Fold these 4 entries.
Entry 1:
Amino acid sequence: MGIPVMGHLGYTPQAIHGLGGARVQGRSADEAIKLVEEAKALEKAGCFSVVLEMVPTAVAKLVTEKLAIPTIGIGAGNSCDGQILVTDDLLGKFTDFLPRFVRRYADLSSVCQEAVANYAADVKSGDFPNASESFLFPREEEALLSKKVEAEV
């Protein structure tokens, strides 16, 4: 049976330095043909799907048309068989950087910052954790524990 594998073409964050930084891939005819060939090779190797990241819409459309397996786009236009975004990006958890292809559907950054500040304040004040958020030691064992500690220490 084997392990299901999804291919990944275009911008691959783990290879950022070899790609010349975070940039769109497949912007020339030669690069586009290379992406199509690589996608077909992944399909032939048994991949069940291919992610196309940061490639021009026309190239993603061409790759999608040439494959029998689904393509999933992230910054690859609307011609792929499916779409994906990094959850933290679409939920707006970060304010310093937003890839061009991301649409924010929420602003959780301020909500997360407020939650962490409230947590820190509760810890500093001693309000967290309270008795209902802690595990209590059985009263019937307290005396026995005290005796054992005194005997061993």
Entry 2:
Amino acid sequence: MGERSMINPTERTPIIAIASGKGGAGKTSFTLNLCYQLSKLGKRVLVFDADIGLANIDVQLGISTMKDLSDVIQGFCNLEDIIARSEKGFDIIPGRSGFEKQPFLTTLERRDVLKRLRDIAGSYDFVFLDVAAGIDNEVLSFTKFADRTFLVTTPDPSSITDAYALIKLLKTKHEKENCEIVINQAGSLPEGKSTFAKVRMAAEKFLHVQVPLMGIVPYDRQYSTAVKLQQLTSIAFPNSDATQAIEKIAQVLSNEYGNRTTGHNVSRMGA
């Protein structure tokens, strides 16, 4: 993964977008397992389900929430009022799913939500945005807002192509060059390294952008089994290769930010 320096722990809480240029890359499962591993390290973690219109993190975790982002948008409550505590040790902000009247946030709504999110981020060590797969304007807006972006891709050629497309749009439209690559569902370590090399070389050659490797997560049949059971692989199969790979990524993140001091003043539903 390369040498990484520790970030000043007095800096503001990092907000990290986790994106993928194509659906099916395992982005949300990776996000939730990473959140769990960080919580195991004693970190306070919040994940915002930013897949507006198709939000389903609460479903994947088997959580029943009374309120979601639509209630905030309509002015019925504040953003902190819909924060729910999962039994996995981290908090979630449930997104808005199946809202046919308006499946996307307006620019003003998105700005307001992100401002509120930044306001409450200081109560956590890490905040993750699980954005929708693809390269639409909403995805670009969330990744532009984030301090860092983890781009999840697989060895599948179309997934690599779409990952490059997202890197290109972030560079050309927002002048952002902070994508870090996660190779998911790699058949082997050499395949994972080869996949990363393809993304890196394309980004360097055509965009003059450096994209570091955040980690390689091997393909694991137990991964999909855990999803069907509404379980995290890290819990259902703690000794699996995928779990161990995500543990390493969590440890890298934890080491980068050192020991942060957070203000624990956010009330949570069900806490």
Entry 3:
Amino acid sequence: MGYVILTYPAGRACEAFDEMVAELQAAGTWTLAYRAFRLAVLTNGDLAPRVTPIAGYDGVAGVLIGRIFDRATTDRGEVAAARLDGLDQGDPLDACRRLVFESWGGYVALWIGRPKDGPTILRDPSGALEVLAWRRDDVTVVSSHALTGRAGPLGLSINWARVKRTLDDPTSAAMAPPPLTGLLSVEPGSVRHGPDLAEKTVLWSPAAVVRAAKSREAKPRGWPSRQEMRQTIDACVRALAADEAAILCEISGGLDSAIIATSLAASGLGPHAAVNFYRDQAEADERVYAQAVADRAGVALRTVRRPPFTVTQAVLQAGAISARPNFNGLDPGYDEGIIAALDACGAKVLFTGQGGDTVFFQIAASALAVDLLRGAPCEGSRLRRLEEVARRTRRSLWSLAGETITGRPSRNSLDGQVLQAEAARQRLSGPSHPWLLNLKGVSFAKRQQIAALAANLIANGDTGRARRARIVHPLLCQPVVEMGLAIPAPVLSAGEGERSFAREAFGDRLPSIITQRRSKGDVSVFMGRTLAASADFFRAFLLDGRLATEGLVDRAWFEAALEPEAMVWKDASREILAAATLEAWVRHWEGRLSTATPDVRAGAIVVSGPDADPKASARKAKAR
């Protein structure tokens, strides 16, 4: 599912361009998918992304990688491909705006531009495809992967400051620039342009969507209705499922995957098979819920037992080969189970309910009280909504009011502890993603939703299952995300439960055992036993590893945390898994770079500082 785009200024760098294309083809990993004047696209894998030229009467102006749909049609509950005609004319930035505001999908678009202007690169707001860029010998390379060799960036090296930041805040692995110097990361919803790609124009951000929705709340129509949510999700599911002969759906037993499975069934496009993973602990066995959903969707359910496993270097190595440390591939049995289910039904696509917790708002329940007390819109009695939050969080109204007044999360609640830990990480290393900046006019609960949305970018990471099938997360596509951001948090999640708006929108379609469920699966005991079984490996791997040598981990702290007694009484799984994942990533990239072409900085895009932003575009885009 990877891609490489190469382009160069007219009349220059043609020899280097040809050498790069030839070497990539000769390696046997990449296949030439498209070539035109000043432009080449290569793809890899059995499920190569779609490649569509951006062309007109004057020839080829660029290329679009991925899938893209018409937004107006989706808003009507229908499906149509986006129109690309005319994108070759005029200013590429105007074409980017048209794509962002009039279409949606998982894509990256590039315009080769005039020689003096340089190329223009757009990454879609969902961030479904990784977009890394660099220049070498006047050739601009844009890719889903960090390459080495003739087409790779000069000056590629490990950025230890970013490694430390990722260690402090593992969620930043998916959000911040990769911890490699020499790469430029294009953020979702933004454009990089200019001769050296130093200019950045932000066209879309979650905060801008929230602010735009607030301006509409005073109007009679207000926020989207439950019927509009259902219609939009159904339309997105149909668009993403079209042309697939067989579809596998993961049914976890929770609300979000149930919505996707029954939406597929309602569309008549699937699912053709379903899979559920369960553990031996009662709280981690959701088969009864998953079976009810499968029965309602009319699909056979394949159940897979997941026993605790031992982490090894080979397990960690699978998540170390990408430009970003991958925390989404730490369970090899999960990948194996998905791949076996795909093989059994002949499917090449997997649908999930990933992102529903964020979009439907099953996060930071105490933040709802802050919004309610500060005047955020709600349905029904404000006092009653506050009482429901108090019962849900098992706290008094006075405690919630005090938190609102002081602006400090309570230490006496799980929500508060999570929010305090996040605040401490931000004080240590700053916001981990540009989406978490410029939040003026965004309520407290919506800020938590935006942070969770940024963290969900990890769902697009490189995994074994993603190399075997197209992974589809309908609840993280742009129309659905924008709808979730546009609905006030106290409306999304009212009552003593959570995700009430979505429950009501799909209530007649779902089994009552799902709509009435208030518990959630918990794999913490499973992970604890896995870590305990792997303690000897972690001890040797971390205490004498590269992170320890660089002074990035506290040997004494990890030695104590890996003692059997400590693993029983203190949950240090986050810190242990983060350190082990980064240790494997560092070892892989040090080994890979040691055999690459000698490091030479000339010609590379150099980003100063640990996470330095380029100069802002002089041509500010009006964000949506």
Entry 4:
Amino acid sequence: NASAKFKKSARTVGDVLGKYHPHGDSACYKAMVLMAQPFSYRYPLVDGQGNWGAPDDPKSFAAMRYT
């Protein structure tokens, strides 16, 4: 739903870890960051809110609790 409120990244990562990937959360969060960065893929796959990094430093994204 396009008009729905944003959810915290920690919530999404927790759901994915609980249902599909019961290992470390860092790989899951980094994959979500790549999907939210408009400069990583041709089209962003995740509509992110917050600091998802910059084109000159793509690893400068904020911690999971802030996005």
